[in-house]
Amino acid sequence: MHSGFLNINKPRGFTSHDVVNKVRRIFGTKSVGHMGTLDPEASGVLPLALGKATRLIAFVEGSTKEYVGELVLGRATDTLDLQGEVLVTSDASHITIDAICAALPYFVGRQSQVPPMYSAIKVGGKKLYEYARAGVPVDVEPRQVVISALELDSVLLEGTRQVATLRISCGKGTYIRSLCRDIGVLLGVPACMGELTRTASGPFHIEHSVTLEKLSENPTQYVIGIVEMLKGNACVALDQGQAARFLQGQRIIIAEELVGECSVFCGTMFLGIGDIAQQVLSPKKVVAQEGDIL
Predict the structure, then answer these.
(1) Which of 7, 143, 161, 288 stands the most exposed, by the fewest C-beta atoms within 10 Å?
(2) Could you say which of 182, 198, 214 is where a domain stops?
């Protein structure tokens, strides 16, 4: 069974789970997981983990995500994007580029953001979109998010609507649809999100991504090995006896004067992720099995 990571360029119209199912069929395994959901109408980077790599998602996925998205001024919808039911429209042709540029800095930094009703966040054991589809009102608590960069790329006037292309760098849990809504509120006009492309997710970038069509032609060519993805980690080598204890979850005294997270090996065999403090190695995530080192 293949183990490693894939940098998929998700097409519009596919859910993240659609992509997972497609990759499961391509590789003939159920052991596939994605790192960070993309809305069905969004495109771009959707990292996947295969096989044993699914145990390492938390150590690889990264917290920063980058997007290129359209801010549509002059229209509000129930889903906060162009696919939803239109709630209100208004003339936004008077909004200047200077006004948009002046608004953007208000959304940079740590802040509270109310997620869209049409989202997979759970409240009372049900997803918000289930309440929305049933027409059941529910209080949505704001969440803390971080937007580290927000830049205006271009503006296009479409009748009474303004369509601004934004470049966004943000932390996990940030909804670009909510950001567009909130920018509109500050500018005094209804707003929603247009097209959205994720250009980066942690260490995965769109220029190195692969389409599902290309992947199906030569699947193994695009698998990024576990060791390759963890190459920034410090490395610790164990002998067979130490390795057996590590795989059993035991702490090990080591000679290396390292501190923090590390990749653990026995020869060329990757065993898992450890944490070092005061020359004691503690297992954090074990990937190999005892039979692998015999």
Answers:
(1) 143
(2) 198
Output the CA torsion 236→237→243→247 (10° steps).
Answer: 30
User: What's 18's domain CATH number?
Assistant: 3.30.2350.10
In the 8-state DSSP scheme, what is residue 291?
Answer: G
Sign of CA dihedral 124, 126, 131, 134: negative
Would you tell me how many other CB atoms lie within 10 Å of the CB of residue 166? 23
Task: Considering the candidates 39, 78, 91, 182, report the single residue annotated as catalytic.
Answer: 39
pLDDT of amino acid 293:
63
| 3-state secondary structure (DSSP) of residue 211 | coil
Span 183-202, average pLDDT: 97
pLDDT in tens, 78-104: 999 999 999 999 999 999 999 999 999
Distance of CA 232 to the CA centre of its chain: 20
Q: Which structural domain, as residue segments, surrounds residue 44?
A: 4-61+203-227
Model pTM greater than 0.85?
yes
- SS3 call for 1: coil
Report the alpha-carbon distance of residue 179 to residue 199 in Å, rounded. 17
3 state SS of 75: strand
- Length of the chain equals 294
Going by pLDDT thresholds of 50, 70 and 90, the confidence category of residue 129 is: confident
Active site (annotated) includes residue 18: no
Answer yes or no: do 102 and 186 share one domain.
yes
Helices (H) and strands (E) in the chain, counts: 8, 18
DSSP state at residue 233: S
Residue 110 has which token pair? 């740590």
